[in-house]
Automatic annotation (TrEMBL):
<keyword id="KW-0067">ATP-binding</keyword>
<comment type="similarity">
    <text>Belongs to the ABC transporter superfamily.</text>
</comment>
<dbReference type="InterPro" id="IPR003439">
    <property type="entry name" value="ABC_transporter-like_ATP-bd"/>
</dbReference>
<keyword id="KW-0029">Amino-acid transport</keyword>
<dbReference type="InterPro" id="IPR017871">
    <property type="entry name" value="ABC_transporter-like_CS"/>
</dbReference>
<keyword id="KW-0472">Membrane</keyword>
<dbReference type="InterPro" id="IPR030679">
    <property type="entry name" value="ABC_ATPase_HisP-typ"/>
</dbReference>
<protein>
    <submittedName>
        <fullName>Amino acid ABC transporter ATP-binding protein</fullName>
    </submittedName>
</protein>
<dbReference type="InterPro" id="IPR027417">
    <property type="entry name" value="P-loop_NTPase"/>
</dbReference>
<feature type="domain" description="ABC transporter">
    <location>
        <begin position="7"/>
        <end position="245"/>
    </location>
</feature>
<dbReference type="Pfam" id="PF00005">
    <property type="entry name" value="ABC_tran"/>
</dbReference>
<keyword id="KW-0547">Nucleotide-binding</keyword>
<dbReference type="GO" id="GO:0005524">
    <property type="term" value="F:ATP binding"/>
</dbReference>
<keyword id="KW-1003">Cell membrane</keyword>
<dbReference type="InterPro" id="IPR003593">
    <property type="entry name" value="AAA+_ATPase"/>
</dbReference>
<keyword id="KW-0813">Transport</keyword>
<dbReference type="InterPro" id="IPR050086">
    <property type="entry name" value="MetN_ABC_transporter-like"/>
</dbReference>
Length: 254
C-alpha cells in the first residue's frame, strides 16, 4: 500500500498582472489530500479558493511551486495537460451544460470523445449515474427543462461519468435557490460515503463541518489555518479564522 496522497501542493504561488504591478492570489500554498477524504476550502470571497481549484485542474498556470497528482508533477511543462484533466472531475457553480444537447448527450460527450468509450457503454454508465442521483427520468430532457438543482446534479453526473481520481467542487450551491441547496449537498454526502476523493470550495459552513475530513481556511491567498472540522470550527487558533467564523455565526450560516 502507498501513503502517497492523491493531491499534493508544494509552495504553490499564483499571481495576476504584470511584473511591475502584481496581485498575489496564492502565496506558498502547501496542501495534502489523502485518498477517500474530503477537504473543504473556506474563506471570504477573493481569498483564493476558486483559483486554487483552477490551478489544480491546470486551467490556470502557477508561477512557482508544484502540484502533484498521485505523485506525478502535473505542473511540469512536459506533463500532458489533457491526460491530467481526464483524471480530474470538476463542477463549477455555473452548471455549464450545453443547452443544445440532451442531458444524456451532455454526460456521454467526454467519455466518448475524450476517453474513447463506445456509445452503448457510455450511455449505460450515464443512465446508471442519473438513476443514482435521482434523475433517472431526465436523460432525454434539455437543460432548460430542469430546475437549478437538477442541472447541478446533472453537472455532477457529467463529472463522475469519466470515473475521476479526484473531484473538484467549486461553490456548487452558490447559484441555487435555498430550497435546492439541500438536494445537491445530499449528493456530495453520498459521494463521500462511497469514498470519492474531493476538494470542495464552499460557503456552506454547516455542510463543511459535517462532511470535511480536513478544513483549510484561506485568507489573502494563504492557508492560514488547517485541521479537522472539529478543530477549525470548534477551536480555531488564528484571530482571522475566529473573526471569519464569528461573522458566519452572526449571519446565521453556522
Amino acid at each position: 500500500m502507498t501513503t502517497e496522497p492523491v493531491l499534493r501542493l508544494e509552495s504553490v504561488r499564483k499571481t495576476y498582472g504584470t511584473r511591475h504591478k502584481q496581485t498575489v492570489v496564492l502565496r506558498d500554498v502547501d496542501l495534502e489530500v489523502p485518498a477517500h477524504t474530503v477537504t473543504a476550502l473556506i474563506g471570504a470571497s477573493g481569498s483564493g479558493k476558486s483559483t486554487l481549484l483552477r490551478c489544480v485542474n491546470l486551467l490556470e498556470e502557477i508561477d512557482d511551486g508544484a502540484i502533484l497528482l498521485d505523485g506525478e508533477d502535473i505542473t511540469d511543462p512536459r506533463a500532458d495537460a489533457d491526460a491530467v484533466r481526464r483524471r480530474i472531475g470538476v463542477v463549477f457553480q455555473a452548471y455549464n451544460l450545453f443547452p443544445h444537447m440532451s442531458v444524456l448527450d451532455n454526460i456521454t460527450l467526454a467519455p466518448r470523445r475524450v476517453h474513447g468509450v463506445d456509445r452503448a457503454e457510455a450511455e449505460e454508465r450515464a443512465r446508471e449515474l442519473l438513476e443514482r442521483l435521482g434523475l433517472g427520468g431526465k436523460a432525454g430532457e434539455y437543460p432548460d427543462r430542469l430546475s437549478g438543482g437538477q442541472q447541478q446534479r446533472a453537472a455532477i453526473v457529467r463529472a463522475l461519468a469519466v470515473r475521476p481520481r479526484l473531484l473538484l467542487l467549486d461553490e456548487i450551491t452558490a447559484a441555487l435557490d435555498p430550497e435546492l441547496v439541500g438536494e445537491v449537498l445530499g449528493v456530495v454526502r453520498d459521494l463521500k460515503e462511497e469514498g470519492m476523493t474531493m476538494v470542495i470550495a464552499t460557503h456552506e459552513m454547516g455542510f463543511a463541518r459535517e462532511v470535511a475530513d480536513q478544513v483549510c481556511f484561506l485568507d489573502a491567498g494563504v492557508v492560514l489555518e488547517r485541521g479537522t472540522a472539529a478543530e477549525v470550527f470548534g477551536a480555531p487558533k488564528e484571530a482571522r479564522t475566529q473573526a471569519f467564523l464569528k461573522r458566519i455565526v452572526e449571519a446565521g450560516r453556522l
